[in-house]
Amino acid sequence: MPEQSPLDLAEGDPFGPHNLPYGVFTTADEPGRRRLGVRIGGHVLDAGAAAQTLGSPYAALLAQPGLGPLLAAGRTAWRDVRRALTAWVTVPAHRQDIEPLLHPLGSVALHLPYEVADYVDFYASEHHATNVGRIFRPDGEPLTPNWKHLPIGYHGRSGTVVVSGTEVIRPSGQRKAPGDAAPVFGPSVKLDIEAEVGFVVGTPSELGRPVPLSGFRDHVFGLQLLNDWSARDIQAWEYVPLGPFLGKSFATSVAAWVTPLEALDAARVSPPARDFGLLPYLDDSGDEEPGGFDLRISVAVNGRIVSEPPFATMYWTAAQQLAHMTVNGASLRTGDLYGSGTVSGPDVHQRGSLLELTWNGREPLELPDGKRTFLEDGDEVTVTAWAPGADGVRVGLGEVTGRITPAVG
């Protein structure tokens, strides 16, 4: 009986030909040679070698050690390469050439798939923002007056965006509890997670020219899961009046796989109803294509699922965030990454941060190895997600993991 081909996937495999996310890998025999790969089932296809073998006009583009050149090539190239890849892994005549270029996932090392240019993080979940407001301003309005008029965000640190699996060193900094007379310096004692979705910019834009809502597909290549680690005690002491800084900039983990927007066409949904009329550059009420994505996220701490946030509830869409990010004339660069902000739903089990899940430490989580308020050294957090695809087949978005290690010094 002939051996089954890696291309013969089980029915409903979330990483079938309908998905084909991009990543960067190395092999044990060539650890210094990074290659652009595409995931198919439990294997990674060497995209550059496949393109060279089959005489693709995009062979040089796919033979690069990272995703950057393909990101910069623009929407036509993205579409053409995706069509070619789909044919390479589905047309029987290509099997003889493609099968030797497939590497089992367990045999390769995965790397950050592109060089991050700028990093911006938003605050787009009404449920998350409301919970945070109620925690810190219990006697006031939970949302700030501007929240439903513009997507609130801040600029992060692109150099500390790391690929899934990278250990996260507990950050140190100043912290001051409300009852303390003076601040102290030391490791964060309120280390938290933020389950998010990141959007990856491909085509740059010109300085001084805002990108409209309609430009989303022309500039954004795809998305990847993101965990924006947060030191809540450091953040609480530093953020007034200029916002997050050291409490956020020590590490942001992203999945090893970037899922093209085209793979998520069946997951597009309308965002929640707006409570106020939006200014024209943010008004998506007349758009033919819904701006939201129906992504189903799970958050696990040490293997125990603690939250299942629904991305479809996000008040602000990725297109609106892009439009707002550039409305002042700020330019986009290839490799820009912007995070959705913490994804939280209306129910307790849908809260995307420990700050919310434990109500700032007042309601500890029950885990198999003990109670948790915030993260302890040795804890591992895993965020996974999938989206509904055509014909009911799931689109896998991979995972982003990180384990906490003790502070340095």
From TrEMBL:
Domain called Fumarylacetoacetase N-terminal: residue spans: 18-113
Keywords: Calcium, Hydrolase, Magnesium, Metal-binding, Phenylalanine catabolism, Tyrosine catabolism
This protein's record includes keyword Nucleus: no
Residue positions binding Mg(2+): 228, 248, 252
Enzyme class per UniProt: hydrolase
Residue positions of the active site: 128
Source species, domain of life: Bacteria
GO molecular function, one term: fumarylacetoacetase activity
Keyword NAD (UniProt): no
Annotated Fumarylacetoacetase-like C-terminal domain residues: 120-404
Residues that, per the record, bind Ca(2+): 121, 194, 196, 228
The protein's name: fumarylacetoacetase
Underlying gene: fahA
